[in-house]
């Protein structure tokens, strides 16, 4: 029962597993085992004690429900965890029990466990992010020449290509993925400071021991403990926030394209997805919906984390105690956005016919800017803009297209070349550098991002 | 395993139970049973079908883990729930199964279940809030005359009473409790709208049926369904946000008073609370810490909910799908703040000796305002303020108290009456209407709150 | 230059005036004048001093730029304000200058000024809110029978009426307005506490003086000063947050209806509104856009305020110093949402033809739920749902409407009465109690909101 | 009047200037001038027109108040700006006016102007950040051996050095500064996309022209326009959020150290800073207070920006219109935090005597962990912990120090070496690797941050 019903639209199964009791407990025990081994190596505790501790550090033997209850009492998971582990160790080797958690403090195990969990979560997210980027790259290339309406403020604008739209999604997801990986790598550092962050209980060998613990856990060793400096975690949190924002943008676009009145793209339904409890005709944009739900949820969680950064002295009263739940919520919401958009993109149906029809149905009005620029050179910009405003006034439901209307205006007939007027509503003729931009975003053209001239 | 380890500092056991799978499922099934009963009453569905549905609507028979998984696929808990309930009913009465969820939509069951859960949660929170207010009232009365330093911007200021401080906490908790109850009562309304919110599938009797469902569930019947109008829920969310802010303020005060250098109040330790994994001397402000953690977490969750209010047309794509997790998180965090402060207040030790000593240790400087006012009438305000700034300059570590220093100033000796100077540092003489304010806040004096003149 | 360019999409002219230097300064000076008058009445300060203070308390004589600069240095507007006022008073009556701000503290003037500004802002917002509600009431009545597609998750659903949609907007705006007024009234209380919140400098007459000051400023007198208890302000903030969420929902609906592919409603353009710098054909949903911008902005500002509630002891270090800017931003954003939606609603064009055509274009599929319910009674729900899913599969582009398709199915022909099938796609026949709900929301029907059975 | 009174605790003078009307207008005009010049270079518009445009592009000639008012009507600053610029150009050269803003769209000028303003703001922030880091480095080195109490959950813990505390601040500010610079550099890209983001109006030379515009403005040219992809800006916003969180942590520490009961550090007062309007004795932590105010405010603004990332298609309806105000608020709040902490750090007085006295006043109890570890090896951990809990029970007000008490326990006398007991309360003997950590954070030791083993 890893996914709880109440959270069931705000997580994925693999991520629910990452933050499950078993997984959280395992991460904490891994820290304790690694600490004991490292301390034994440097003769701080007996080798036999380290062995006994490592052997006892198995989550399945623990009463996790009791641990959770005691954590609420203690205000930290470290105290009950250490107590329970001591008991388990004592069952094997009573002398060894004394060396559990030697020289460490509660926050050392809690923070390091959190970092281990983040890395575990990231593995799943990275897989989905890679999948998503592959599909978007495919869509960008496949639809390089698929022309569709541009839409600004939800109103029709000159055409773009669907390839450019997909490439735009790809670009922001790529940048977001890079930021996430960079932030995660920066945050993948051991926390080990002892009571006050000086490792006083380990004498002069604290750093060497810390380096050994980090190595055993596959983490980097930071310049110093970070018990009340949470900026590295905040950076991971923010990277999730930005990424989810980008996925939300993509999701909004898809949900809008999927409106029956627009009909230009559709998520695939399939196994349990997209139906309605009461309306058999429904094909709902479920992937987009879940990503949008995440995009609604994550900014507030990001703010919660940033608020928690104001942490007192060597350990906060209130600042870090809310971090576990906040980060777990945020990572799971980010993960559901990534997974949903990967699935949505993979199954996306693109309806080129509707795209083309939707442009046509605008009767050339979206080329009014083009006509203005043409006419500006002849009759001045202001006159041209006013003329085109009249010609495209939606209040006047005329029959013809823009070029037909313009051709009927006696004054204009001579101003614009017939051939030019004929091509006025040719989308191909008004795509500018849409394809070049798409190529650059896709990395297939001569992309030199962030060049400084 | 109701409290998960990862959430264990952000919930309480009773509230974790409220949002547990069993409880959530039960709330949804209660809705389905009440709906069927009401529809049978109005002959929309056969009475036998309603009986069968009500009999099948027991959470223990369901595979909740499967429901949670399917909810993520479906983007709504309603679809898998209805499907599973139909199967359970069909096992008893295959004809009856068709009448499950008749005329309702997914969001009807999800929203109404959420309201039922909120009321269940509120029962626990109300109990803790009442406890908290009783203790604060006791503290306010008991310490009516307990004089302590006022502190502004964390610097010493003229004295207040601890009674006034407690009464101030009480006042804001009371107002917050009233707002919470009011918001909850406003939000305790049935959601029943059917596919588009018109109850079309129930013909012309939709409202009567709705009123019957509401009655059966102990809810009010609103003017109309609120599937995409979430302001009543938002009001509950905000009431939690404000209440947690007030509790956070109280918690911060306690954590500050409990600093060893201040030592004016202390939370009780006791069973599993307040200790350290490594420091035997520690008595940590755990109640305050957990409330502060909640106060860090809840504002962001409030923002998340408010962001979700922008919901499209007759059902949102993204807006409501994140509400369950967000509200559950927020209510549990609020609940942990309430419970923690109730416990902290109940066990609070007030150290009147230290309060008195801390005032003394200021050597009268906190009465500089009083001296200024006295002197202003003699030598003018500016001269008085400047003179007192010099006399109280912390950079000059003098031995005497303020009144002693003033007495030594030859120019002043004649300006201020000796008796007055003697009483300068008498806290009792400079409490203004502290006790009257405390009484008014406590409701024991002639409180006439919000009188409009 | 009241509206700054950088804020020009996040305020209105009247609200920018409310929070302008002149207005802020005036509110602070009004407090100082009222305080002096009240103190003179109770013989705390000389009547002549009070007169001189009141005479000097005119914003136009002050160097506001200097005040703003000094405020940043002082960390409070009170100190430089009082200093400047003393100078102005001294120019008239040097003895009087000493009695400026007598017994009050910086936060007294800052907080009371904020309350006065909020009331001033509310006057403008109330006017717009009333306008908005009048128009929505008119729309709800006028379009009682205007049938349009319901839309859930942005997909077609059974029909609703535009009257119900407008009534839904109205209902939430009404509730929001009521909450705002209630919160504002609760917060319209004087802040007067002196250095530590005990009014020590005013001796035993603090409360009487406070009542007099409140009376002079048109405020209520609270049970006690609220210098570090900010829940009443938080309630105003939250009421703004909820209201803006409701306006954002309305704005989203309008922006979606205004899509050219949907075309069911449109904001009016007119003087400087809705155009494009480059596209002459554009009529942009500017009102909706500005309201949506506010709805994006306000939740975070709400969170910021709630975070600031954790205020230390008798005056916060950090908590209240960010309130001015936060509340001003939030109120102005709320105000722009209200004003924009009032204007948008007033000019809203409703295109009944397109509404009707959009239903038709669904070829009856939105009545699949209705058909399912009909068929369920004959062939069982599951069979019916499956059959309708096939009949309405968007993947199969068939020519006929749903009822035509059903009529062609040999098995069904005999199951459903011809007359019934004929009426299957009659929207009028499937509106349920849409009109009753709209009436109840509009208050024209037998509304008994929040009835508890 | 650059700093408004209402914002006067949430900005600095230089940053208020950056976001002043004049500066904002100048940034927009710089874009238009650079665009015209680039277009002339590529023969898109006449060279004479470009010259005329560049000559007219001077803010002092414009009616900014009118622009701000019209922006609210238009929903974008671009439209009124372009209109006004055309008028100014026409006054010089009527033919040239038509070529203003050629091929660009409103958002191009608004977004690029925002980027230019961010860079201008960053220059001021960078200067303050450098100052701050210099002082912190000095403090870290200077107080390498200044021993003080560690404090966890605001309770006494084993000693640390003030050098380590300062180095911890330094480390997080350094990382934050690096993130800010990196994000800013990534975001320093031109926005130029034209109506739909394809630069259609510029034919095939859009990219070359864009590169030229970027060069002229000192910006990089991105892979593609980013009109509805806001992740680069979001990254700047988040970097500000994280940095302000770190500064808030430092500010909280200082405000706590500055409590009169602690008295270990103090901000300098000086010109207009730190006083009280009523209490002459006050020296308030104004720098810390303003930074804490910012740290309360910025997380919500960050959330607001992230919420705005969900932007529709080729231009958002609501998403970007709130960005200007949000970013300006956030950058100014971040800036005030940086400036305040730079000033606070520069003037920080460190009171080593009080640090030492505060440790002493704990009567050795903070060395209970040390004693436990010593005793654990003799009598087992549990017994040791229990014994020390008793010995350090704050409820028992004993006279002696911990080592004295332990010496009096007959059982212990023989267990611990006298010499060891004597050194029990020697802070120097229990600092672990505090100095090494401080060195690593300060970069003076063998720092190899983020080493991966």
Describe the structure.
4 copies of one chain form a homotetramer. Chain A contains 19 helices and 4 strands. Chain A has 453 residues and is mostly helical. Among the domains of chain A are: 105-189 and 226-355, Fumarase C, Chain A, domain 2, CATH 1.20.200.10; 365-424. In chain A, the strands form 2 sheets. In chain A, strands 1-2 form a two-stranded antiparallel sheet. The longest helix of chain A is centred in the N-terminal third of the chain and has 37 residues, at 106-142. The two termini of chain A are 56 Å apart. The model of chain A is unreliable at 445-453 (pLDDT under 50). At the A-D interface, strand 1, strand 2, helix 8, helix 9 and helix 10 of A face strand 1, strand 2, helix 8, helix 9 and helix 10 of D.
Return Rg of chain A in Å. Answer: 30 Å
Quaternary state of this entry equals homotetramer
Q: Give the % helix of chain A.
A: 55-70%
* Count of alpha/pi helices of chain A: 19
Structural class of chain A: mainly alpha
The level-1 CATH class of the domain at 105-189 and 226-355 in chain A:
Mainly Alpha
Largest sheet of chain A: 2 strands, antiparallel
How far apart the termini of chain A lie comes to 56 Å
Principal-axis shape of chain A equals elongated
Average pLDDT of chain A: 93
Most extensive interface, chain pair and sizes: A-D, 117 and 117 residues
Which stretches of chain A are low in confidence, meaning pLDDT under 50 for 5 or more residues running? 445-453
């Amino acid at each position: 029962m890893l996914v709880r019903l109440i959270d069931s639209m705000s997580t994925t199964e693999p991520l629910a597993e990452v933050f499950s009791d078993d997984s959280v407990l395992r991460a904490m025990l891994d820290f304790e085992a690694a600490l004991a081994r490292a301390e034994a190596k440097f003769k701080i505790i007996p080798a036999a004690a380290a062995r006994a501790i490592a052997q006892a550090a198995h989550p399945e033997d623990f009463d996790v429900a009791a641990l959770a209850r005691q954590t609420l009492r203690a205000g930290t998971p470290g105290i009950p965890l250490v107590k329970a582990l001591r008991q388990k160790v004592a069952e094997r080797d009573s002398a060894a029990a004394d060396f559990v958690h030697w020289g460490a403090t509660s926050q050392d195990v809690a923070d390091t466990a959190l970092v281990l969990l983040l890395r575990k979560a990231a593995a799943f997210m990275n897989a989905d992010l890679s999948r998503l980027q592959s599909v978007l790259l495919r869509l960008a290339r496949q639809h390089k020449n698929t022309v569709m309406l541009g839409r600004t403020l939800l109103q029709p604008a000159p055409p773009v290509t669907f390839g450019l739209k997909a490439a735009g999604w790809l670009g922001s997801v790529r940048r977001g993925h890079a930021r996430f990986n960079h932030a995660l790598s920066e945050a993948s550092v051991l926390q080990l400071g002892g009571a006050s962050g000086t490792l006083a209980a380990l004498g002069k060998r604290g750093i060497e021991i810390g380096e050994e613990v980090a190595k055993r856990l596959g983490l980097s060793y930071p310049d110093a403990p970070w018990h009340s400096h949470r900026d590295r975690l905040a950076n991971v949190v923010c990277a999730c926030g930005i990424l989810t924002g980008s996925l939300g943008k993509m999701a909004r676009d898809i949900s809008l394209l999927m409106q029956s009145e627009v009909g230009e793209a559709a998520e695939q339904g399939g196994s349990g997805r997209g139906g309605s409890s009461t309306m058999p005709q429904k094909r709902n944009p479920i992937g987009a919906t879940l990503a949008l739900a995440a995009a609604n949820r994550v900014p507030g969680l990001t703010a919660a984390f940033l608020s928690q950064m104001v942490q007192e002295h060597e350990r906060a009263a209130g600042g870090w105690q809310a971090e576990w739940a906040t980060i777990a919520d945020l990572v799971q919401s980010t993960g559901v956005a990534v997974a949903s958009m990967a699935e949505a993109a993979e199954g996306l149906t693109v309806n080129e016919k509707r795209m083309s029809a939707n442009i046509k149905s605008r009767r050339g009005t979206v080329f009014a800017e083009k006509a203005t620029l043409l006419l500006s050179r002849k009759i001045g910009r202001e006159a041209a803009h006013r003329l085109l405003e009249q010609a495209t006034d939606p209040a006047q439901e005329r029959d013809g297209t823009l070029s037909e209307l313009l051709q009927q205006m006696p004054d204009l007939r001579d101003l614009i070349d017939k051939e030019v007027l004929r091509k006025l509503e040719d989308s191909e003729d008004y795509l500018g550098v849409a394809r070049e931009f798409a190529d650059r975003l896709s990395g297939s053209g001569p992309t030199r991002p962030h060049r400084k001239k």
